[in-house]
Amino acid sequence: MRPFIYSQAQNPQDAVRQGAAPGGTAATAQFLAGGTTLIDLMKLDVMQPQTLVDIKKISDPTLRRIDANAQGLRIGALVTMAELGENETIKREYPVLSESLVLAASQQLRIMATLGGNVLQRTRCPYFRDVSYTECNKRNPGSGCTALGGINRLHAVLGASEACIAAYPGDWAQALMVLEARVEVLGPRGTRTIAFSDLHKEPGTTPHIETNLEPGDLITAFTVPAGPHTRRSLYLKIRDRESYAFALTSAAIALDMDGDRARDVRIAIGGVATKPWRAREAETALRGQVINEANAKRAAEAAFADAKTLKHNGFKVRLGQETLIRALLQARSMEI
Asked: Which residues of 135-150 are buried (b: 16+ CB within 10 A; e: fewer)?
């Protein structure tokens, strides 16, 4: 690990000021909360921040609060994965949020990791995390992508480019996508709110630019609107082993049913894309339709119609389709 400057922020505004110091970039200044991804990457020499701004001890209670009312949720960015995942209101009214957190990481990590950091976690692409591979456009822009001709079993089949095929690793982000969450951001120019679907960027030709955040921007909260779909929601995760493993494929589903027909359907898929991925083509195929195996299959085929596979990851298309079909049928059958 390389030397760095450590400082503690007194309040959110102080954190933004320190994070956006003159000349500051995502490479030179990083916010530290749970640190469950950042510290690992610093030890691996993948990330080399010059300054760490510790925000974990900021006393602002709004950063640690879960507020639920008839309009929806507001979740502070310093709420931990464990706190939200184990919250009884969330488990009852927004099960997809709870399930996506409980199925992620380990209990020890969930106790430490904050939700603001969770959505910004970096890819687990081994070529990104091993600096002995010099060709990684996400780590060394313009150097190439070793994964294209390497072992790419865990890599993305949706949203990839010739510059990068690294898969987004998170689970909770898919749940936020289907519930159409918004992100509150405090930055050098003040406060703004953006749709969660606009937070992450596809790699294109600049895979090192992963989000639409700017230097000094601090995620302060997530808001989730209430609706008839939130209770009939779930997260299904398929992985190599039952615990402490990232998704090979996953599906977040939220349904509003009118009898056996889907009045509204929302689908996000994980483990298969370069960013949190909303399967809008699948939603269109199902909206107003009976949720049965045949229609679920057609929706699953639509979700992966644009998939591009490589030598080792082609299995993700079929597995992703079967995951989506299973998740849809389980959501249809939920008792609410």
From this structure: bbbbbeeeebbbbbeb
pLDDT of the residue at 28: 84
Pairing type for strands 72-76 and 66-69 reads antiparallel
Residue among 324, 336, 331 at smallest CA distance from 262: 331
* pTM beyond cutoff 0.70: yes
β-pair type (29-32, 51-54): parallel
Q: Return the closest-CA partner of residue 295 out of 269, 260, 334.
A: 260
- What percent of the chain shows pLDDT beyond 70? 98
Label residues 108-131 b or e (16+ Cβ within 10 Å = b): ebbebbbbbbbbbbbbebbbbbee
Q: When comparing pLDDT for 248 and 28, which is higher?
A: 248
Report which secondary-structure segment, H or E, holds 277. Answer: strand 277-278
Q: Identify the pLDDT of residue 26.
A: 52
> Beta strands 5-8 and 51-54: pairing type?
parallel
Host H or E run for residue 332:
helix 315-332
Q: How confident is the model at residue 25 (pLDDT cuts 50, 70, 90)?
A: low
